[in-house]
């Protein structure tokens, strides 16, 4: 059942706090799972930082990467997370102790994206080397359980579902791997893909590409349902996401603006154009998993900003 419409969705535009400990561009910022009140950010300065977004306090810095950090994935119980970047390895971390518990090596280029499955038993990693590697975290083996080699250019985005893996690549394809049937569907978008985010019920996919478009696709058929435009996105990895209860689509752009659209009619939510809120490209936008009025943005201007409705 769909909830009754409460009028057009609104986007949280009130700045709650700015997190500014990183030295250099911040490439990724992720919420802890569920209602937990923490965020993790990773950047050019090779660090991952754990924050309390309520107070704006930095709780812990995780340092082991020798190169920039490009991706973070938090486990379902918030006890561990995975990270990746220029090291060509995937790092697993214990949140409580702040130390790495495993390093998964095998990629031949920087690792743009890592994602856990639902119970954090499997981790997927996607790389500049065009491959996706699947790692069984319950096994002591250092080898991946599977290597997916269909992409023809860097893999920029992954999502691991119960039965499928979604992958977005610079080659312009979104690939859906059905693990149960052993089948692959490749949908040609025609532009380098920088993010792929499924809806909560996994029936639709939100895909951001380097032609300044965010597109909504039917996950089962690959049919285009809607396109969202107005923002500037031609050169950098920017992540789009759904707004609260998936009534809207949100994406930061290369001018430091956060754009939002109504999911159904693709109209830009006011103000149009939106105000500039970062000094450089907004690399990552993520809505809080349970809080209606909170979202977070990361930027090449070395800051993370927490947005709240008051």
UniProtKB/TrEMBL annotation:
Q: Which domain of life is it from?
A: Eukaryota
Supply the CDD domains for this chain. Answer: WD40 (cd00200)
CC annotations in GO: catalytic step 2 spliceosome; cytoplasm
**Keyword presence, Flavoprotein:** no
Q: Where in the cell is it found?
A: Cytoplasm
Any idea which UniProt keywords this protein has?
Cytoplasm, Repeat, WD repeat
Pfam families per the record? WD40 (PF00400)
UniProt protein name: WD40-repeat-containing domain protein
């Amino acid at each position: 059942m769909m909830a009754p419409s409460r009028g057009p969705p609104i986007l949280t535009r009130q700045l709650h706090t700015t997190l500014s400990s990183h030295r250099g561009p911040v490439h990724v910022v992720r919420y802890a799972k569920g209602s937990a009140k923490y965020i993790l950010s990773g950047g050019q300065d090779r660090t991952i930082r754990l924050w309390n977004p309520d107070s704006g306090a930095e709780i812990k810095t995780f340092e082991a990467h020798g190169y920039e950090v490009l991706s973070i994935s938090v486990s379902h119980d918030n006890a561990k997370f995975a990270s990746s970047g220029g090291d060509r390895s995937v790092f697993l971390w214990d949140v409580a102790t702040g130390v790495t518990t495993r390093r998964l090596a095998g990629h031949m280029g920087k690792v743009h994206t890592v994602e856990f499955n639902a119970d954090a038993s499997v981790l997927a990693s996607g790389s500049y080397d065009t491959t996706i590697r699947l790692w069984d975290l319950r096994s002591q083996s250092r080898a991946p359980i599977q290597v997916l080699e269909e992409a023809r250019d860097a893999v920029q985005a992954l999502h691991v579902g119960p039965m499928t893996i979604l992958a977005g690549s610079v080659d312009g394809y979104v690939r859906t791997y059905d693990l149960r049937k052993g089948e692959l569907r490749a949908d040609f978008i025609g532009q380098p893909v920088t993010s792929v985010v499924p809806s909560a019920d996994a029936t639709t996919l939100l895909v951001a590409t380097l032609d300044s478009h965010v597109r909504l696709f039917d996950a089962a058929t690959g049919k285009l349902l809607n396109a969202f435009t107005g923002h500037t996105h031609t050169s950098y990895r920017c992540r789009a996401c759904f707004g609260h209860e998936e009534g809207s689509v949100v994406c930061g752009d290369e001018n430091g603006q956060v754009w939002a659209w109504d999911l159904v009619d693709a109209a830009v939510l006011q103000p149009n154009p939106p105000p500039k809120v970062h000094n450089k490209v907004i690399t990552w936008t993520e809505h809080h998993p349970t809080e209606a009025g909170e979202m977070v943005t990361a930027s090449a201007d070395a800051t993370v900003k927490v947005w709240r409705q008051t």
